[in-house]
Specification:
CATH class: Alpha Beta
Structural class: mainly beta
CATH architecture: Alpha-Beta Complex
CATH topology: hypothetical protein yedk fold
Strand content: 35-45%
Distance between the termini: 19 Å
Helix content: 10-25%
Shape: globular
Oligomer: single chain
CATH superfamily: SOS response associated peptidase-like
Order of helices and strands: EHEEEEEEEHEEEEEEEHHE
Number of helices: 4
Length: 201
Amino acid sequence: MCNLYKLSQAGAEVAQWFGATDRMMGANHAELIFPGYTGLVVAQGEVRVMNWGFPLAQVSKRTGKAIKPKVVTNTRDDRLHSAFWRDSFLHRRCLIPATAFAEAEGDYGSMTRTWLSVPGADLLAIAGIWRESDEWGPVYSMVTCAPCAQTAEIHDRMPVVLPPATCSEWTNGTPEQAFALCQPYSGVMSIEQTPVRWNAD
């Protein structure tokens, strides 16, 4: 499950790479994107700012009253047709631009960040879905699938990294065409293990 990624490029660069309109007109964004924070998303041909994570309603076990929603950042490919995700998958697919994504490695309590990217690629296009929410405005979630051979020892899931030629099919194709793209990345991935603690700011 990916709960951290980075985007080093500005909105204008993202727009140019994806052939999209820079709706935010160069708005600043943090390079490291954590769950619940804002990131850039390419949706409906525009670069937009959205919050990372769908809100999942929660109720206190003690009082039975509503509490702060849980942030759900990832969507398993085998659950895209479930009630929680279905409408967004059918009608609101998007692209999540990233320079690299991170996974936690090591023993619990002392995990470090391992960064994964595609060698020579300025940007990755990660499959995503989005919707409007009452709680946080527009939100997005990252679609995940089984890992590729290189990443299987790091984690049992990975983001769906789309080859550039398939980006339009993900956003504009039929649900059947889009679902067929939910496959482990078939190319070579670059893996950078670091000493940075997973929970470091």
